[in-house]
Design goal:
Elements: H1 2-11, H2 17-24, H3 28-38, H4 55-74, E1 82-91, E2 123-131, E3 134-140, H5 149-166, H6 168-173, E4 177-179, H7 184-187, H8 189-197, E5 201-202, H9 214-224, H10 235-247, H11 251-260, H12 263-267
GO molecular function, one term: nucleic acid binding
Organism: Cuerna arida
InterPro entries: RNaseH_sf, Transposase-MT_Hybrid, Transposase_1
């Protein structure tokens, strides 16, 4: 019976215990015992991921990650020169996470309940660039503004000015490296011409790989967690609170995640 159940499951992993019972004529209890005890199997749901990568995209991700590793080997101080950035929405109300709303209870008490809630329509687009020493530049997009190549070009102009004022050594040496993702506005010909014109080097970012972009896997989640569950009446309140929390992040944490954490160095290789 073990072999029969194993063969059926290998042919169709979505078969239920009841279907196996009916198809094979084996009692339900025996099917469960075979699955759990003999085959050491459990029924699980598919894990949600933002995007399923093709083989070409996986290979591209691996190649770029390897290239970045090679860069680090040739220049151990590379990430001290990296300025990384991205955009993200900040909401007037963003529901608490499941972990945030958890609480202790005794065995006799009923489990607490809460109504399902959704993000508010009041929101603003935050753009942040940072390096190992902290935030280099941040700004909020005007209401109704989409992040297109023309807008992003102006953002980069303001970023250059911020580097000149806040990171004079990098500005003088013209040695800083820009890291951003492959969003259409970032990778457009207009932006690439601007970067070439001003001798701004770029650190490659694999496509569809937010797990190796510090803004996505560290900065934005860290910034937004304290804001979840709070209500802000308008965009100005959102900006004030988001900016306060952003600038309150200790400098050593930026260095830890960007340089010492070595995330871009390859510890997150696929």
């Amino acid at each position: 019976n073990v072999e029969r159940v194993h063969a059926e499951i290998n042919e169709n992993r979505r078969l239920t215990v009841r279907e196996l019972e009916e198809d094979l004529g084996i009692p339900k209890s025996s099917v469960c015992n075979i699955l759990h005890e003999d085959l050491k199997m459990n029924r699980v749901s598919a894990k949600f991921v933002p995007r399923l990568l093709t083989e070409d995209q996986k290979n591209c991700r691996l190649e770029i990650a390897q290239d970045n590793l090679d860069l680090i080997k040739s220049d151990p101080g590379l990430f001290k020169k990296v300025i990384t950035g991205d955009e993200s929405w900040v909401y007037g109300y963003d529901p608490e996470t499941k972990a945030q709303s958890s609480q202790w209870k005794t065995r006799e008490e009923q489990r607490p309940k809460k109504a399902r809630q959704s993000r508010s329509n009041v929101k603003t687009m935050l753009t942040v660039f940072f390096d190992q020493d902290g935030v280099v530049h941040h700004e909020y997009a005007p209401r109704g503004q989409t992040v297109n190549k023309e807008y992003y070009l102006e953002v980069l102009r303001r970023l250059r000015d911020a580097v000149r004022r806040k990171r004079p050594e990098l500005w003088t040496s013209r040695d800083w490296i820009l890291h951003h993702d492959n969003a259409p506005a970032h990778s457009s010909n207009l932006i690439q011409r601007f970067l070439v014109k001003h001798d701004i080097n770029q650190l490659q970012q694999p496509p569809y790989s937010p797990d190796i972009a510090p803004c996505d896997f560290w900065l934005f989640p860290k910034l937004k967690i304290p804001l979840k569950g709070k209500r802000f009446d308008d965009v100005e309140q959102i900006k004030q609170n988001a900016t306060k929390d952003l600038l309150a992040i200790p400098q050593n944490e930026f260095k830890e995640w960007l340089v010492e954490g070595s995330t871009l160095k390859g510890t997150r290789l696929p």
